[in-house]
Specification:
This protein is elongated. With about 525 residues, the chain is of the alpha/beta class. It is built from 18 helices and 20 strands. A 7-stranded parallel β-sheet has the order 3-4-2-5-6-1-7, with helices on both faces. A 6-stranded parallel β-sheet has the order 10-9-11-12-8-13, with helices on both faces. Strands 14, 15, 16, 19 and 20 form a 5-stranded antiparallel β-sheet that branches. The longest helix is centred in the C-terminal third of the chain and has 31 residues.
Length: about 525
């Protein structure tokens, strides 16, 4: 629940939050509410339903969590007995665990308990707030481990990723079990069609935060650019050090004064000269979010933490570009505020040009990066970024994809070769069957008998000619003897059946090419070609 705010006029106490929550925010190093938090906290404290168009990086966890805890603490003080007060849903168990960890210290400040249905957490029994995936929560409801009848609030975080990962059905089922009067909060970026549909059905009379413009255009024309590098939290400092080493005279922005001090110490240990702007023999200036951008004095900006809004991004990076280090789950937020700031965001490093199959593979990956919804996939991979760099994870995924493609090529080659080789016309024989129209036999009866007794499919059977007292049926030549043996002696429509080769037409017992009257070859048969004439 990191607040990237700072330098703002408002304070958390101005938003009406309980003193315990305000103190907890101050102790966590929050300099002040972000614009999203200023807009969201008063609305959710009133218990209103809301659709919040935001994601990690804008201070969204505090924007939703602090007013939720404020309301629930008041409910708990009412002494209505122990019951589950809020269910918070996340796309993955890792995301649920991360949310619960962020909420827990603030909940404890108000005497509330948070639990996650995720590995490494104690059972959720007795918790005031449970954070879970829809599937795990639904399992808890079905086993009576979770009881939703006393719920005060349902919060769906990262809804667009949740739907992309297949959680829609479980979410709908859970929502139907939530009391109608419970507060409902939906958080998503982007607001996909599935998210909008869910909001229309289940989040009635919801306030939109931020308010939606009457008409949404393509956005302002870009006036500059900033590079970004997707990294895990543990990779941020090494990545920052590598960037600074390429060119000193850098201003490093972080989210809090405490974090700025830690970064400065770590960079000094690596041999960089840390100082203030304008001081001689200074490689790096490390500033918190409160540092005025106008004092950068031409230095190159590096945001170790993604800016929380468009104004902060533009203030830091519009003049000299620079680099933003962004967590995988924060990338949609960065892309959004860059559009609002009229800045293009570009990956810091591009692929070197090459030729042949490798270049074709890179082009497909680049196209997917531009066109696919990557937020859900980044969420799936997010736990790996604490153990491996994003480049290593991408390389591993590339290796798996290329191995799969190589394995698929031999399998795909066989059908392709077969498709290029014209199929020879199948050889059919004509069978005489001793039942016909007088016995109330139809073509469908004959198909059923042959399929059931001889094991041929309907598509293998050719023409069927049902006459007055007998029928003629075409079957593949290699199946003729099998059909004769299987049907002889059986009954059809109450009549005993006798089957043999149609010797009048074939002149013998063997198969004849084609099988049409007059001896003209039939040519290749389409599947089910004889079926249209059977009824």
């Amino acid at each position: 629940m990191h607040n990237r705010g700072g330098g703002m006029a408002g304070m958390f106490s101005d938003l009406g939050l309980r003193p315990g929550l305000v103190r907890a925010a101050e102790e966590a190093g929050f300099a002040g509410p972000t614009p999203l938090q200023e807009a969201t906290i008063p609305v959710l404290r009133r218990g209103a339903n809301a659709v919040v168009e935001a994601s990690s990086g804008a201070g969204v966890t505090a924007a939703v969590g602090l007013p939720l805890l404020d309301r629930l603490a008041e409910v708990r003080e009412g002494g209505e007995g122990e019951r589950l007060l809020a269910l918070v849903l996340a796309p993955t168990e890792d995301a649920a665990s991360r949310l619960a960890e962020a909420l827990a210290p603030f909940a404890l400040a108000e005497g509330l308990r948070v639990a996650a249905q995720a590995p490494g957490w104690a059972p959720a029994a007795g918790a005031d707030i449970v954070v879970s995936t829809p599937a795990r929560a639904l399992e808890g409801v079905q086993t009576s481990a979770l009881k939703l009848d006393g719920l005060e609030a349902l919060v769906v975080m990262g809804a667009s990723s949740l739907f992309a990962l297949g959680g829609a059905e479980a979410l709908d089922t859970l929502t139907a079990s939530v009391p109608r009067e419970a507060q409902r909060v939906l958080v998503a970026l982007p607001l996909t069609r599935e998210v909008e549909d869910y909001a229309e059905r289940h989040v009635r009379k919801a306030l939109r935060i931020p308010p939606r413009a009457a008409e949404e255009g393509a956005g302002p024309e870009t006036t500059g650019s900033v590079a970004y590098l997707v990294v895990g939290e543990e990779e941020k400092l090494p990545a920052a050090a590598r960037i600074i080493a390429e060119s000193t005279d850098t201003v490093v922005f972080s989210r809090t004064d405490e974090r700025a001090a830690d970064i400065a110490e770590a960079l000094a240990n690596r041999g960089f000269r840390i100082g203030a702007l304008g001081e001689p023999e200074t490689d790096v200036v490390v500033a918190a979010a409160t540092a005025p951008p106008e004092e950068m004095a031409g230095a190159r900006p590096l945001s170790v933490d993604v800016p929380f809004d468009a104004a902060q991004l533009r203030g830091r990076h519009a003049e000299r570009g620079g680099v933003v280090l962004v967590l995988p789950r924060e990338l949609p937020h960065l892309q959004r505020i860059a559009r609002e700031a009229a800045l293009a965001v570009l990956p810091r490093r591009g692929a070197a040009p090459a030729a042949g199959a490798l270049e074709a593979f890179r082009r497909r990956v680049a196209q997917a990066a531009r066109e696919e919804d990557l937020a859900a996939q980044l969420l799936v991979l997010d736990p790996l970024f604490d153990e491996f760099s994003p480049a290593e994870v991408a390389a591993a995924a590339s290796a798996l994809l290329r191995k799969r493609a190589a394995a698929a090529e031999p399998r795909a080659a066989e059908p392709a070769r077969a498709a290029r080789t014209p199929a020879a016309p199948p050889a059919y024989v004509r069978l005489f069957i001793s039942v016909g129209q007088r016995d109330n036999v139809r073509a469908g009866d004959l198909v059923g008998a042959i399929a059931g007794e001889a094991g041929l499919s309907g598509d293998q059977i050719g023409r069927i000619d049902v006459r007055d007292t007998f029928s003629i049926v075409e079957v593949p030549g290699e199946a003729g003897d099998r059909v004769i043996r299987a049907l002889n002696g059986t009954t059809l429509r109450g009549r005993s059946v006798r089957v043999d080769y149609d010797r009048k037409r074939t002149g013998g017992a063997g198969p004849r090419e084609g099988g049409r009257e007059g001896g003209r070859p039939a040519g290749p048969r389409r599947p089910g070609a004889g079926r249209a004439r059977r009824e």
